[in-house]
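User: Sequence in, structure out. Go.
Assistant: Echoing your sequence, followed by the structure tokens.
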Amino acid sequence: MNNVEDLIIYKQYVELIYYTEQLLKKFPKSERFGLCTQIKNCTYNGMKNIILAYKKFDKSEKLAALTNLDVNLKMLKILVRISKRNKYINNNNYCAWVKKLTNINNLMLGWFSKCAKV
């Protein structure tokens, strides 16, 4: 693997970003600087942590980046629940969004356990 774009987690996270951007267009204008901003920040910080984890050679730095990714994913799940509860997204959108987050979380946990063993 010569490039971060070759990682499965990277590809799935890019799809998550596209999906998130699409859904945020449905939110009311009153949430553009509130909830939407929080969701975008968590999403982009998650991608930043994937890139950092890929670039770091030191095991503790890699694990720190993956831990930060885990925090971002958990925060995103909370924000998605808030979006559903406030009826900014429908049930199908909620299920699809959570499925994407869960898949990425599972890939992150596998990467984390692989790094922790070495």
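User: And one key feature?
Assistant: The domain at 4-23+31-117 is CATH 1.20.1440.60 (de novo design (two linked rop proteins)).
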